[in-house]
Amino acid sequence: MSGSKIITVQRHIIEQERDHPEATGELTGLLWDLTIAAKIISREVNRAGLADILGLTGQENIHGEEVKKLDEYANDAIIKSMDHGGHLCVMASEENEDIIPISDQYPKGKYVLMFDPLDGSSNIDANVSVGTIFSVYRRKTTAGNGTLEDCLRKGVEQVAAGYIVYGSSTMLVYTAGHGSHGFTLDPGIGEFLLSHKNIQIPSRGKVYSINEGNANTWDEGTRKYINDLKKVTPETGQKPYSLRYIGSLVADFHRNLLYGGIFLYPADYIDPKKPKSKLRLLYEAAPLAFIVEQAGGKASTGDTAIMEIKAEQLHQKTPLIIGSKEDVEKYEGYFKNK
Ligand code: AFP
Hints:
9 helices, alpha+beta, binds 1,6-di-O-phosphono-alpha-D-fructofuranose, 338 residues
């Protein structure tokens, strides 16, 4: 074992809180509960490949209940881990059409939790990394049950955000506004240990991540930008960027966060009067924007900072261009001049 300190996520959260004497410990409790949900989901995701041979899905379990699909399982695991802790007044999930109230039997807290329980789950049967994304806001209403108003927010109002990527190992990356930090789950002891302190995304990358099959639906600026990334200019030494696209947002984002690069899911302009986006503002774009900004990167729609968009609807969609600062800024130049 090397000489570096072993820091669990719990200790890290507590130590961050100590720097803020006004903190009540509620956010610490909330984040702690979330790590429990993450471990439960991680265990289940790791067993996914055994589902058919062990009869884990699409059949009845020993209690005679039908075994749920993994995204529903993850959704339930988060709700059941979070609803009774007294930290939350309301939740919203990518899987639920409406807000999720806290049951009358449980105390209500001052925070709002929004999450995408298992993003990229269509990839799971191929053993591709998937992820959970979460976002925490302080409530706007003052007492009782939280409302839709508590959920329809601007990204800049987030107090914490994070994701868990279930990959070759399970990693949690979170920010509470003091840098973005990564923890790797040690399955032997069941703890997330600090492995990536104060992550800094390189200011420029060599990778772009986009679904190029959609090229005919893009705006002119995006088309030109992507074309230019492939150019070779011997005079300046510019080499083409490499394309890396998994199709699982957390996995694509995580790689680019560590190595540098740009992820793009622009709007579909097949009908130029009605551009259509795919990714969700509250459950995907805003939390990842908070994390990338805390790591020195940037997130944009092309002309607006993701963090500045006020949600009008729970499942609102947005274009998402996210990653290394200089790469995102360069894209914005192309987008504005389209
Ligand atoms: P699923 O959860 O249905 O697999 O969708 C994944 C996702 O929302 C996001 O994780 C990917 O970045 C994006 O969709 C991929 O979309 P395309 O398949 O259109 O490229």
